[in-house]
Amino acid sequence: MILPVLAISVPIAAPFAQILIRNIDAVATSPFVAVARAKGASYRQVLLHHVFGNAILPVLTIGGKAAHIPYAITWQHEVAELPEQGLNGYYHLESMDALPPLVAQLQRVESAA
């Protein structure tokens, strides 16, 4: 079961890691990082408490899309009120067949922006 997870997650994780590394480099040169270092914070503290939190935001924004595809059996604790379609990156699909057109639509919208 671990091999399919790795086969799907590694190609997706690589671009996110590149974006994160670029953002860490950009945030690390910010003035508030220099102030934190001047106040005596260690490099590790600055990295974890100041840099990483600001650098992860673009990665979360890019990867923050979700699609709900219902299954034939739904447990009671899984039942919830569905948010509005497209609100905050959430999409409700009736089947897996609707996923490729949604991905193509999202790619067109992001490339146009």
Taken in chain order, the helices and strands follow as HHHEEH
In helices, the fraction of residues equals 55-70%
Describe the sheet with the most strands. 2 strands, parallel
What count of helical segments does DSSP give? 4
Roughly what fraction of the amino acids lie in strands? Answer: 5-15%
Q: What is the number of strand segments?
A: 2
The termini sit apart by 38 Å
* CA gyration radius, whole angstroms: 19 Å
3D structure, described in words:
- This protein has 2 domains: 2-62, no CATH class; 66-112, no CATH class.
- Helix content is 61%, strand content 5%.
- It is built from 4 helices and 2 strands, in the order H-H-H-E-E-H.
- A two-stranded parallel sheet has the order 1-2.
- The two termini are 38 Å apart.
Q: What's the layout of helices and strands?
A:
Layout: H1 2-28, H2 31-38, H3 43-62, E1 66-68, E2 90-92, H4 99-112
Helix pairs in contact: 1-3, 2-3
List the main descriptive attributes of the protein structure presented here:
113 residues, mainly alpha, 2 domains, two-stranded parallel sheet, 2 strands, elongated
